[in-house]
Amino acid sequence: MQDESKKLKKTISIVSPAYNEAENVSLMAKEILEVIKKLEDKYDFEIIFVDDGSDDETWNNIMELNKNDPRVKGLSFARNFGHQIALTAGLDATTGDAVIYCDSDLQHPPELFKEMIKKWEEGFKVVHTVRTSTDSEPLSKKVMSKAFYRFINMLSDVRIEQDMADFKLLDRTALDKLNSMREHNRFLRGMVPWIGYKPAYVKFIARKRIHGKPWYSFRKNLTFAKTGILSFSVKPLKYIGYLGLFLMSTSVLAICVGLAMSVITKGWYFSPNVTLTLFNTFLIGVVLTSLGIMSLYLSYVYYEVIGRPLYIISDKTP
Ligand code: UDP
Ligand code: MG
Question: Is the CB–ligand 1 distance for residue 51 below 6 Å?
Fold first, then answer.
């Protein structure tokens, strides 16, 4: 009887990637276990830490945690594959009816889980968290991040909000869709909104990092931004073509004006330098337009290659 009631409980998986977070994983696990203690009568939990090829004691600490409480599980990468891939491996390994994923550096407070689960129980398949204060971050990072999100939203078809971190709850249905997207260049902050489903939002104040240092360097952030733009927009490819068309048409127009003026003035109207520049611009226009056409084909290939599902159905009548 007891077993049966146990089976009726829903399982919630918690996924957290860790790269050189030896001190943090232990503290994080402690906090998570404390938070889930209050929810244990309603849900079963599994906690999956993904050690992303750390050089420190992270993996040993995860194994230790597992010995003390078998609900804490771990995966260890053979080398550092990066945050987004570590997160993906963790999401692939989950068995729960819902998954919450967060950073393991204690910046994402586990106290928020309760509120996120509440939203999930209300029927939301995607629960985003929104950072309300980023006081702990340097001004340069804030400015860069604002510029990046403004830029990406200009280009992208799905809206990607600035203060939404990789700290979310996904229902199993949404998670299965996300897991079916196997692109190598992963930008989960865009992939989750791409799936759709009406989301809920929960606000939180990001904590300061106490132990360790942030691993996202300026260069890594640039790579991350590049992945975000390239995997959510083919507009830059189209703009090459537009630039070509613009150069071609303006130079053709100028040449026509020149020809007309030459007829009127009965002599070649432009100086040799201007003539050369105009023909040159025209040819550059032709080259760029051709590149633009090739880019259009490339964008078709691109979407075929990443092989995303064609559509996501959110509901069906019985
Ligand atoms: N992380 C990871 N692999 C990496 C870099 C980071 O798994 O190559 C993890 C890290 O342990 C942390 C999360 O990703 O849990 C976010 O990293 P970080 O704190 O450096 O990013 P920030 O908070 O500065 O955006
Ligand atoms: Mg952090």
Answer: no
Structural domain including 89 reads 2-233
Pocket of ligand 1 contains residue 212 by CB under 6 Å: no
Ligand 1: does its nearest atom lie under 6 Å from the Cβ of 19? yes
Distance 25 CA to ligand 1 centre (A): 12
pLDDT digits (tens, 9 = 90+) for 240-296: 999 999 999 999 999 999 999 999 988 888 889 999 999 999 999 999 999 999 988
Give the position, in ligand 1's atom list, of the atom nearest the Cα of 20. Answer: 11
Q: What is the pTM of this model?
A: 0.86
Q: Does residue 316 sit within a domain?
A: no
C-alpha span between 80 and 291 (Å, rounded): 37
Q: Average the pLDDT over 226-234 and give the result.
A: 85
Residues 261 and 129 in one domain: no
The residue from 214, 233, 252 where one domain ends is 233
CATH number of the domain that residue 14 is part of: 3.90.550.10
Residue-wise pLDDT for 151-162, tens only, equals 888 888 888 888
Q: Which residues contact 48 (CB under 8 A, 6 or more apart)?
A: 13, 14, 15, 16, 73, 74, 75, 90, 93, 94
Span 5-18, pLDDT tens digits: 556 899 999 999 99
